[in-house]
From TrEMBL:
Gene3D superfamilies: BEACH domain, YVTN repeat-like/Quinoprotein amine dehydrogenase
Provenance organism: Colobus angolensis palliatus (Peters' Angolan colobus)
SUPFAM superfamilies according to UniProt: BEACH domain, WD40 repeat-like
Name this polypeptide is given: BEACH domain-containing protein
Source species, domain of life: Eukaryota
Length: 758
């Protein structure tokens, strides 16, 4: 099935200019003849549009107003020269139409949206059609519609207009010249109605621009400019802003092949329900990102009384497109304003103080691409691109992604178009949630958190086994994939390997006389990596039972390490996080690793903890002064710096969908921050520091200073369970991917194995 749209546009005319229950019939190219037959005669080029209750002339020159003549105010309608006094001017077949009327409206003069101007009194307008042979047909239609408009009863008017309309539709057929391929055949032709806000227009998809077609689809998809959470979505059209077209068959997230590969890796490793993009192509934040210059109060409301960081504002169209193409979490499309006539959303006409960028320049008007001479020129060229033949031929591919069959299921997977389930209609059936509190909680989750992951929810923890294996506080825990071997680090400077099956200590290794701070296993479980307060990172071969390598990478204690896809991420008290490329040895334990420094993320103070999102495109760091920093690893740039704790940030983690960051601190707070906006959207308090935590996307289990494990209900913003475990602070915690097993380490030198009860 193809919905075919003609190439001619309605131009400045919107169907909203029509009266309620008024239909658009047809249009013809024409000249408006002023002072016909006199020495002052002149012609205004444009289009004459016939509607069920009016005749509308749209001049090509936008400084000229649109003319709307109500048919019920017409006194005489006919060929020019047949209306009395003008008869002597016509000596041959006339190609002109004469309308004598008592009232006319002037609309959008100089293309400015403003109240209509009305002129009253008897007057005559003459319109010269490009095709003289159509004059009789147009005049006959106008006379029929005039008779209908003069009927007293509205029902009679509607019935007569409907009869006229059906008669016209019966005489028209699909233009086969609009086929895209000569082998195409017409299988079916049927009547249709185009529905737009306040207007319904019958026809065969007649004289409809791509712009109005997209507005129509957004409308029937329940998207409205009155609802920021369901604002109409429009596509990016120009690919690299040097005037080449974007591939409309792919969602924004799939346009960059390298970024897509990383997203697909995270998708394949993710538990059900899987998704590729944790953020949506449209959201209130994205809409107001574009519209902040004309809707500042809405942005202040959404942002808790502040504007966003100046460098993250809508400063440049080219920069915004680049971020959508390369950024780790930005997959947004455009809004209708990019293809309209009003440039005010690009211009700081309100003289808002939107802050200073890093280069100290004030945020003011949006910078347009080099090929546009002004905001007006940018919109005009964008409209030209939207209405181009290329877009007309390929727009249905984008529509399939956003409105059609590629939204869900295997087709969405094949098109790399899998968004989070809660962003899709039917993702959650609220009608089946009977408990009103639960329903409110789910609505809050959809609006604020965006996701409750379908992992098991942590509800009750039962102490299973405990072993004292260190001489000082335990600082790190990692477990082999089969769960049989548990590796721990401690402030006693040792790495220990404990057998879960034999319940015995298998080995103890010391690299220096200083504390070890964290540990991890490389893929394959053949090498353990540990970080140390002596500024180094150590590699230990499990297979060969010996120290394999040392990375001397920092100027102060290394506090936390992560590994993903042959990259090592190390945080240090020297105020840096460093990213290293690590080429693993061909034979574990026999060759040294080779490391290159890829990036250095600089902080103002010492970094105590870091965490990566599942795709390793984002990194969050926590400092000793209570600041949470969110970094885009694809560009090694700082996205947000959020001072949300008083005192040390003890632990951080991304939600499984990468939309939110959870952080705990010495201040006892458990905070949830939105990754895209940097907004603190939830903060919960406990009466003591929370040193570490794990979470399943909904519930959080944190280790407290007193040795208790607290289970938090994020939606209910409360502590749901308290379980006593260690004598002294819980210092580290590990949970398997299935969320079925938890191990904790404490200041009491013990490791405790927990069972989860559901």
């Amino acid at each position: 099935v193809r919905f075919t749209k003609p190439q001619r546009s309605l131009g400045r005319i919107s169907l909203l200019l029509l009266n309620l229950e008024e239909y658009y019939f047809d249009q013809d190219r024409a000249n408006h003849i002023l002072h016909k037959g006199s020495h002052h005669e002149r012609k205004i080029r444009g289009s004459l549009k016939i509607c069920s209750k009016s005749a509308i002339f749209e001049p090509d020159v936008i400084s000229q107003p649109i003319i709307k003549i109500p048919l019920r105010d017409c006194i005489k309608t006919g060929k020019h020269g047949e209306n009395g006094a003008n008869r002597h001017f016509t000596k041959e077949k006339s190609g002109s139409i004469s309308l004598i009327f008592s009232q006319v409206y002037f609309i959008k003069e100089h293309n400015v949206v403003a109240p209509y101007k009305i002129e009253r009194g008897k007057m005559e307008y003459v319109f010269e059609l490009d095709v003289p042979g159509k004059v009789e047909d147009v005049v006959e239609t106008l006379l029929q519609l005039h008779r209908a408009s003069c009927l007293d009863n509205l029902g009679d008017q509607t019935a007569m207009v409907t009869a006229i309309l059906q008669s016209r539709l019966a005489r028209t057929s699909f233009d086969k010249n609009r086929f895209q391929n000569i082998s195409e055949k017409l299988h079916m032709e049927c009547k249709a109605e185009m529905v737009t806000p306040l207007v319904t227009n019958p026809g065969h998809r007649g004289h409809l621009s791509n712009y109005q077609y997209l507005l129509h689809l957004n409308t029937v998809a329940d998207r409205s400019c009155n609802d920021l959470s369901q604002y109409p979505g429009f596509p990016w059209i120009i690919h690299d802003y040097s005037r080449t077209f974007r591939d409309l068959s792919k969602p924004v997230g799939a346009l960059n092949k390298k970024r897509l590969e990383g997203l697909l890796t995270g998708y394949q490793e993710m538990p059900e329900p899987k998704f590729m993009y944790g953020s949506h192509y449209s959201s209130p934040g994205y809409v107001l990102f574009y519209l902040v210059r004309i809707a500042p109060e809405y942005m202040l409301c959404l942002q808790n009384g502040r504007f966003d960081n100046a460098d993250r504002m809508f400063n440049s169209i080219t920069e915004t497109w680049k971020n959508c193409l390369d950024g780790a979490t930005d997959f947004k499309e455009l809004i209708p304003e990019f293809y309209g006539d009003d440039v005010s959303f690009l211009v700081n006409s309100l003289k808002l103080d939107l802050g200073k960028r890093q280069g100290r320049q004030m945020v003011d008007d949006v910078e347009v691409p080099p090929w546009a001479s002004s905001p007006e020129d940018f919109l005009q060229k964008s409209k030209d691109a939207l209405e181009s033949n290329y877009v007309s031929e390929h727009l249905q591919e984008w529509i399939d992604l956003i409105f059609g069959y590629k939204q869900k299921g295997s087709c969405a997977v094949g098109a790399h178009n899998v968004f989070h389930p809660l962003t899709c209609e039917g993702g959650v059936d609220l009608n089946n949630i009977q408990d009103p509190d639960e329903k409110v909680a789910m609505l809050t989750q959809i609006l604020e958190f965006g996701k409750t992951l379908a992992w098991n929810n942590i509800t009750k923890l039962q102490l299973h086994e405990h072993y004292k294996i260190h001489k000082e506080a335990v600082t790190g825990i990692t477990v082999s994939r089969n769960g049989s071997s548990v590796f721990t680090t401690s402030q006693d400077s040792t790495l220990k390997m404990f057998s879960k099956e034999s319940k015995m200590l298998q080995s103890s290794i010391s690299f220096s006389n200083m504390a070890l701070s964290s540990c991890l296993l490389l893929p394959g479980d053949a090498t353990v990596v540990t970080s140390s307060w002596d500024n180094n990172v150590y590699f230990y071969s499990v297979a060969f039972g010996r120290h394999q390598d040392t990375l001397m990478g920092h100027d102060d204690a290394v506090s936390k390490i992560y590994w993903h896809d042959n990259r090592l991420y190390s945080a240090s008290w020297d105020s840096t996080v460093k990213v290293w490329s690590g080429v693993p040895a061909e034979m574990p334990g026999t060759k040294r690793h080779h490391f290159d420094l890829l990036a250095e993320l600089e902080h103002d103070v010492s970094v105590d903890t870091i965490s990566l999102n599942p795709a390793s495109t984002l990194l969050v760091s926590g400092t000793k002064e209570g600041t949470v920093n969110i970094w885009d690893l694809t560009t090694a740039t700082l996205m947000h710096q959020i001072p949300c704790h008083s005192g040390i940030v003890c632990d951080t983690a991304f939600s499984p969908d990468s939309r939110h960051v959870l952080s705990t601190g010495a201040d006892g707070c458990l905070n949830v921050t939105d990754v895209q906006t940097g907004m603190l959207i939830s903060s919960m308090m406990s009466d003591e520091p929370q040193r570490c935590f794990v979470w399943d996307g909904n519930s959080v289990s944190s280790g407290s200073q007193s040795g208790e494990l607290l289970t938090w209900d994020l939606l209910g913003a409360k502590i749901s369970e308290r379980t006593q475990g260690h004598t002294g602070a819980v210092t580290c915690i590990w949970m398997n991917e299935q969320c079925s097993s938890i191990i904790t380490g404490g200041e009491d030198r013990q490791i405790i194995f927990w069972k989860l009860q559901y």
